[in-house]
Each structure stands twice: as structure tokens, then as C-alpha cells.
Fold this protein.
Amino acid sequence: MKKSKFSIFAYTLFILVGLFFLTGCFSEPNYPDTPQIEFVSLQNIESKARADTDSIVITLFFKDGDGDLGLTSTDTLAPFSERNSDGTVNRFRNNFFAEVERLNEDGEFEPVTFASENFNLDSRFPVLNTLDKETALEGDLRYSLILFATSFSPVQKDDILRYKISIADRNLNESNIIYTDAMRVGVYE
């Protein structure tokens, strides 16, 4: 059976219009270049390795317009060096910033103070964009930490804690600040 020129033209036009609509549906999201985060979940898991230890997993949803999130182990020079030129600790040696707050007797959350002023919960997460080009990114970011509720720790069993979290990109743009749900130390899922 021979197809007419019109039916071949109509078929080709149908495919081209279909491709146009399909590619239009999958355009890159338009997010700001400053990362944005949202709280997803907080898990408190009993440590099997050591008594009086909580394993905390915080999950965040992130989005970033240019995808410049993450640091490598070789990112040790400015602006990611350990110290600033004046000798003070450089905040941006890390890209995940976490503070723990405890519910006090007045029903307010206040920062937990650790014995050493150099101790903090800040950390690094690896480079998330592996495409070698600027692109919008979104997804979940999981942060794990171990919390000791011992006599030398400022955190004790049955304390009610929450975490204050933000992240930074490679251009030192800091995200919004989020707070996790509250959790009781020593009570596990």
C-alpha cells in the first residue's frame, strides 16, 4: 500500500509537534542561585555500638539554580581553608552548618554549649553536580551525627533537642535557616 505525500507530511508534522511539546515539558527548573532548603525528617536511632549514644539522621530537601553545591577533600585553600587570614576559624571550611538547641524549663529553645569552643556540628558534603556544567539541582541531603549523652556531655538523656540547619554553596551563598522537629534524647524510633 502506497502512502500519499500528505499522510507522510501529516505523520512527520505530528511527530515534530509531539517532540516540541515533550521537550517543553522537561525544561530545567528556574531556581535562584542561592540554595534553598526544607526540613524533611529527623530520625533518632539507638546506637548498637555504644551505650548512651543516639545516632541522628537529618534529611533536608534542597534546590539550587546553578548546582554549585559541595566540597571536595582537596578544597583546602581560600575560601575553604581551615583559618582566615587573621587566624580565626573559617566558617566556610564546611558547607553544612548545624547547631543543637535544648528546650529549657521556660519552654524556649536555647543553644547547647559544648566544653570546647572549637567543637561544633558543622560538616562537609561532597560535590553534588557531576555534569561538568552549571545546572539546577534538587534532591534530598542526609546528615548523620552521633550524640553522646554521658556525664561529660552537655546533652543528657531525656533532653528535648532540635537542630538549626543551613548550607552554603561554592560561591559562599548561604541558604535559608531551617529548624528540625524536636526529639527526646534516648527515645528511639
The chain has one helix and eight strands.
